[in-house]
Amino acid sequence: MKRKRRHLSAEFKARVALEALKGIRTIIEIARENEVAPSQVGAWKKELESRIDEIFEGKSEVARELARKEAREVKLERKVGQLVIEKEFLEKKCEQLGVDLSEKP
């Protein structure tokens, strides 16, 4: 019989990862006690280690990073719009000049 998939909360994952990070008990012991695979405990531990510095970043740094990403997105959207307009213009001119667009150079 197939076991139903469990949905584990973020709090549970954080608790297990923190316990693994402390290193008091082995990952296998922690996994057995919490009924999860040792590889999953290791993955959660690794994720916690790689992102723990985000806790101490100032909110202003997070806001600046978000603003940079949004500005880049706006710039890329503008560029895509410009390229679409240029493509449509060139297609129209080719049609007016009788250039066959099905031919590849």
Report the helical percentage: over 70%
Task: Specify the overall morphology.
Answer: elongated
Largest sheet: none
- Count of helical regions: 4
As for the number of domains, it is 2
Structural class: mainly alpha
| Strands, count | 0
Average pLDDT rating? 90
The string of secondary-structure elements, in order, is HHHH
Low-pLDDT segments, ≥5 res: none
Strand content: under 5%
Radius of gyration, CA atoms, in whole angstroms: 27 Å
Terminus-to-terminus distance: 61 Å
Structure write-up:
Helix content is 70%, strand content 0%. With 105 residues, the chain is an all-alpha fold. It has two domains: 8-56; 59-105. Helix 1 packs across helix 3. The longest helix has 39 residues, at 59-97. It starts with 9 loop residues before the first helix and ends in an 8-residue tail after the last helix. The mean pLDDT is 90.
Tags for this model:
105 residues; 0% strand; 4 helices; 2 domains; elongated; mainly alpha
In summary, what is this structure?
The protein is mostly helical and 105 residues long.
Secondary-structure map with pairings?
Layout: H1 10-22, H2 27-34, H3 38-51, H4 59-97
Helix pairs in contact: 1-3, 2-3
